[in-house]
């Protein structure tokens, strides 16, 4: 039985049609794997699985992930990270070979590549200046650092470089973020974009694996303001809160501890 494998167009372009077709046919495809996103076990014969190609300057490493965690995609990482992963792989297990991005010598691949943090997003209404405002709360699933850096977590610093501002109180809205927008299509959340709401060069900073439904109240609020407040905090700061009052409490605590940044983004779409 062929594996339940997703190979995106960008992954196919990197590895070539021949290798992509071999993977889809079951050649060089593992049955079981550890998801490169959540690290939980997966099985290509039982559940939809994404091919994730980590690409360095000279090396390409193919990994696998639950399709429910992340879509099939190409992820640029530092060559140093990939070489370290390759060394650990070849010392412990037989490799799966894939062509390099420019026809280079094949490199070993398995899911134990440098982890890509997944950005979790929660929709909610936040009371600001006496009115309920549509908000998105972004929290990664693991610490986020720069390639080659030894710092534990630089998520807030990286966002600060993109224009996000520290949030000390939720009573005042954060400033407008130039060049960012939130894409809503037919009442469903699709993406957070960089490049502006009307720019052909806009790229998805965050993209839903499947469009996310939002509540009628949230949609009504965003249609009223045409803006969304986007808050962000490091991993483990907010968590998945089942109610908006608990979400507000977690956000207030994060702000008081200096662990919250934010910005307002215009609405793109409908």
Topology summary:
Layout: E1 5-6, H1 9-15, H2 17-25, E2 32-34, E3 41-43, E4 49-55, E5 60-66, E6 73-76, H3 79-92, E7 96-98, E8 107-109, E9 119-128, E10 131-140, H4 155-161, E11 165-166, E12 180-185, E13 188-194, E14 203-213, H5 216-225, E15 227-232, H6 244-256, E16 261-269
Parallel strand pairs: 1-4, 4-6, 10-15, 12-16
Antiparallel strand pairs: 2-3, 4-5, 7-8, 9-10, 11-16, 12-13, 13-14, 15-16
Helix pairs in contact: 1-2
Describe this structure in words.
The protein is of the alpha/beta class. The protein folds into two domains: 105 residues, no CATH class; 151 residues, no CATH class. The chain has six helices and 16 strands. Strands 9, 10, 11, 12, 13, 14, 15 and 16 form an eight-stranded mixed beta sheet that branches. Strands 1, 4, 5 and 6 form a four-stranded mixed beta sheet that branches. Strand 7 and strand 8 form a beta hairpin. Helix 1 packs across helix 2. It is globular. The N and C termini lie far apart (42 Å). About 11% of the residues have low confidence.
């Amino acid at each position: 039985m062929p594996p339940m494998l997703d190979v995106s167009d960008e992954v196919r372009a990197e590895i070539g049609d021949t290798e992509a077709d071999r993977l889809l046919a079951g050649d060089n495809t593992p049955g079981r794997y550890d998801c490169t996103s959540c690290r939980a076990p997966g099985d290509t014969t039982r559940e939809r699985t994404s091919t994730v190609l980590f690409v360095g300057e000279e090396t390409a490493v193919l990994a696998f992930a639950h399709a429910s965690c992340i879509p099939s995609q190409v992820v640029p990482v530092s060559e140093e990270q990939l070489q370290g992963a390759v060394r650990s792989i070849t010392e412990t297990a037989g490799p799966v070979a894939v062509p390099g991005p420019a026809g280079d010598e094949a490199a070993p691949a398995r899911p134990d590549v440098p982890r890509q943090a997944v950005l979790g997003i929660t929709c909610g209404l936040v009371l600001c200046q006496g009115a309920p405002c549509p908000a998105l709360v972004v929290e990664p699933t693991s610490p986020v650092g720069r390639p080659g850096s030894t710092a534990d977590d630089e998520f807030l610093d990286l966002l600060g470089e993109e224009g996000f501002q520290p949030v000390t109180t939720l009573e005042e809205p954060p400033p407008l973020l130039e060049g960012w927008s939130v894409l809503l299509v037919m009442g469903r959340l699709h993406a957070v974009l960089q490049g502006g709401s009307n720019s052909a060069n806009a790229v998805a900073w965050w993209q839903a694996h499947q469009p996310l439904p939002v509540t009628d109240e949230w949609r009504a609020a965003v249609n009223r303001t045409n803006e969304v407040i986007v808050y962000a905090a490091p991993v483990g700061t907010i968590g998945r809160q089942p109610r908006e009052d608990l979400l507000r409490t977690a956000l207030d605590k994060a702000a008081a501890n200096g662990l919250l940044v934010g910005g307002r983004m215009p609405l793109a779409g409908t």
